[in-house]
Amino acid sequence: MTAKHVNILTGINRPAAPSSGSAILVNDLYGAIPEFHTTFLGRAPVDQTWTHSFDQLITLTTVKRPHGPHYDAYVDALTDEVAALIDKIRPAAIHAQYLGFALSLALTRAAGTIPVTAIAHGPDVIVAERSRWENETLNEVAAASAVIIVPTHALADRIDRLTGRRLTDRLNVIPWGIPLGDVQVCDHPPTRTGPLSLVHAGRLDENKATITGVEALALTDQPHHLTVIGNGILRQHLERRAAELGLSDRVHFIPFLPRAELWRRLPEFDAFVFTTRGLEAFGLVAVEAQAHRLPVVYSDLPGAREILGIGGVPYIPGDPHSLAAALDDLGRDVHRHDTLAKAAFDNARRYDIATTGRRLRELTLRGNSPGSPPRWHTLLLNRTAARRPQTPNRRP
């Protein structure tokens, strides 16, 4: 198969908008592969201001259902909708974003002999480690995929364990990236000893553990300031906690910012605080901070040191005392701060979205090589067909 105009079907089962890291990543990724003609499946409402890179954006109409008595019927209906779209679009390959969610399940069940590449994002692995339903979905999607792409070796190992080490040869590590050509880097003035101007950006939920950053500021020797950028279910709790600790004048909250605005603001700060407590697939926002010459004080999770290199300062995950000590050390040592800033910038140059796109393209074309589908795929299709009645539009 030639590289020109390869039709790709992919999607994320959420409103089509650049409001999540996964949506931004996927948009960047397919924009970096001009040889792909990409059809993206998303949900209404579509952000009409979003200048996306997809050749076609289709909104799904099947009503979403949570896990419960109606979930199987929902997946069946979604599979029927996807099957009809496959018949119409005739993609050469399918990219299933996330391994453990309903749209990926529908894509793999409707794929027929079309090769599937599964792309793990992190939340799918988190829920699969906690939920039997998502675990079963992850295993079915992984088994139906010719290739499984993960951004770090640490995440690859988690998926390898969740799938019983049966699919190790399908796992491929491709680090995520950002459009480095769009980064406008300004020279920072020399850092002075004293309180740091810190920034944290991301979803405000339990796993991102922004609370660690807030509570750390109450323990520091220096009166550092923290700006928290993002939305989430814990926003009000974090604001109350900051007030309880007497930090209302040192912790400031800003709603989610589009990436262009976030990137414009990043050079205003001295360092980025990365507080995730559990699994983090990659941490693109930390790489974005590094690309703007910000050292990253990060929760020392599996994979984080792999990604952030020597341009970061680790602390014990979920431990505000450890984070406070790391911040004070950084604030006291001007030379170290400037050395880390240079190392952060150099490290970020490893993560260009063009490189990610090139490697995804190579794996997709390799999976599209002529020949019969692998035996494991045929067995899955037969098992699915036996369990569920076929519809007229479902591909064989």
Describe the protein:
With 396 residues, the protein is of the alpha/beta class. The chain has two domains: 207 residues, Rossmann fold (3-Layer(aba) Sandwich), CATH 3.40.50; 169 residues, Rossmann fold (3-Layer(aba) Sandwich), CATH 3.40.50.2000. The longest helix has 19 residues. The C terminus is likely disordered.
List the SSEs and their pairings.
Blueprint (H helix, E strand, L loop, with lengths): L5 E10 L5 H11 L4 E8 L12 E4 L11 H19 L3 E5 L4 H9 L5 E4 L3 H6 L3 H12 L3 E4 L2 H10 L8 E3 L23 E5 L8 H8 L7 E5 L5 H10 L6 E4 L4 H7 L5 E4 L9 H8 L4 E4 L4 H5 L3 E4 L4 H13 L1 H15 L4 H15 L7 H13 L9
Parallel strand pairs: 1-2, 1-4, 2-3, 4-5, 5-6, 6-7, 8-9, 8-11, 9-10, 11-12, 12-13
Helix pairs in contact: 1-14, 2-3, 3-5, 7-12, 10-13
Please name the CATH topology of the largest domain. Rossmann fold
Determine the strand fraction and express it as a percent band.
Answer: 15-25%
Give, in spatial order, the strands making up the sheet with the most strands. 3-2-1-4-5-6-7
Radius of gyration: 22 Å
Cα(first) to Cα(last) distance is 22 Å
Average pLDDT level: 90
How would a crystallographer describe the biggest sheet? 7 strands, parallel
What order do the helices and strands follow? Answer: EHEEHEHEHHEHEEHEHEHEHEHEHHHH
CATH architecture of the largest domain: 3-Layer(aba) Sandwich
**Number of H- or I-type helical stretches:** 15
The CATH class assignment of the largest domain is: Alpha Beta
Write a brief caption for the model.
Helices cover 41% and strands 16% of the residues.
